[in-house]
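User: If you would, consider this record:
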Amino acid sequence: MLNNRSKILKTAYVGLCLCFLASCQNKEKVSEKQQGMQQMQQFPQAVPGAGSTWKAVKLIAKDKTNPNDKGKEFDVEIGGNAVLIPNSKLKIKVEEFFPDFFMDEQNKMASKSISLTNPAVAITVEEEGKPAYHGWLFAKYPDVHAFPHETISINLKDYIKK
């Protein structure tokens, strides 16, 4: 009976040791993840919207009512003044540019790097001097958070370096 109890205690001890080791490894993983998140959260300052690499973006505006419209390209300076969207009464301003857009666990937007992996711009659109839209345009996913307007569509097409 004592021999069985000794075996059970040894097994329990080994199990506790394994659990302890596993939790230590998980804490190391969490701390590595936290360090990475802290570094990424610093990117908006290290890779600001206007940045030292890009000065503007190239957008394309299309008339949704005309199926033959190939669209008009126009440039908007990042962080600059609002620009009139061709063939409309709308003005658009590019607030921020994130070359490698991501959203962290606290829903903060940032850029993981300066690589054009997931380019996105934060825009503000005015119609007849009144705010009409504030949101995002994604180069690779134009239908995600698309500009909601009855007659005009706007897409992020290209990026202009300084």
User: Anything to note?
Assistant: Strands lie at 54-63, 72-77, 83-84, 90-98, 101-103, 109-111, 120-127, 130-138, 152-161. The chain has two domains: 1-45, 54-161. The chain has a mean pLDDT of 77. DSSP finds one helix and nine strands in the chain.
